[in-house]
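User: Okay, second chain of the day. Same drill as before: sequence in, structure tokens out.
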Amino acid sequence: MKIQCEEGWYNSFCPLSCISWLIDKIKGAFFLVLGSLSCAHFLWRPRPIRLFNSPPITTIVLEEEEVSVGIKEEKLIPLVEEIIKLHSPKVVFLLGSCFVEIQKIDLKYLAHFLSQYFKIWFIPVFLSGFEKAYTCGEDALLSSLVDYCPLPSEEKKEEVVFLGALSEKSKNTFIEKCKILNIPLGGFLPPSNISNLPSIGEKTLICPLTPYLVFTLDKIAQKRKSNILKSLFPIGIQGCREFWKDICKYFKTSYEVIQEKEEQVREMLEKEKKYIKNKKIFFMGDNLLELPLARFIEFCEGKILEMGTPYIHFVYHKKELNFLEKKDITIIESPNNFSQLERIKKLKPDLVVSPLVFSYPLEKSMKTKSVWSVKFFLSTSSIYDFESVLSLLKIFTNLLKR
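Assistant: Same drill. Structure tokens below.
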């Protein structure tokens, strides 16, 4: 395995764009953004249909004078009053932006002022386009929630808390697995309802579902002294197997109870794998899911020409890297997209996993099929656990079948 670092320019959505998939997964919360018209665009672009559904999200567009001298908290009061009247939120996430970051607007003070005035939680979330990837938006929001999670009582025994935004359907599959495997479940972060934040402490095993929640994991480890599961992520068959095996090992329970489920999924994959076998796949990289996705494609006998990813964390991503170690895969950390385009011309892959901005040029100019990297979040099907393995593979094979 060869790991290179290009420290190049790559194209990614603003982290604010991740809020479009979080609003469906955290009930009872409102998302209030301080930003520009561009910020509003990033929020709505992935989910334009929701414009007609009055979703729990809005942008306070800063005027030029506010960008230069800061925003006055009194101006926010009538706007927030209207929000509370229409939505009755239990929590309001006060989301920053590039303007807030550059002008050093005191987001913590604004959140504290509004919390005192309205007697509900206003949680500051620091976001900007300076982050490595748009998925860092979910990381920033979940890390802000950690401070509001209660501490477990002294009598409470060890429990598992799953970290990462899931649909209600996916949460039910995880709950069912915990029952079958006799694993004590402490909850999910984020919870389906913001009122049900899980307790997190030294007896909590935190199980991250995705590679991009690094800041949240660091905060939990430092502030709550929790144990962090360092396993494969539950994406693809190997990931699901190792993920649940490691949890079972921690709680001294038997994994064999769901062995039959694993075998069923393997059989289901056999017919679909033929469409990706020996196909050349190129990851440009911008969502930080590239490591587990590349591992899954290798398992399905696809050939990875190059795997770009915004960054690698050699503690939390170690097991994923170990799995790819024996494969002849070039891994590019912080890739230069323009250099990648030259390599794509030369290597002629069958499929490219690309940022949305390159999708049209790849298909029209280079005649190369492309999967939008954002599709793994906007897909109607989840990508986590055994139940989602086949639908995950079809995101790739449906394009290759054409």
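DSSP finds 17 helices and 14 strands in the chain.

User: Thanks, on to the next one.
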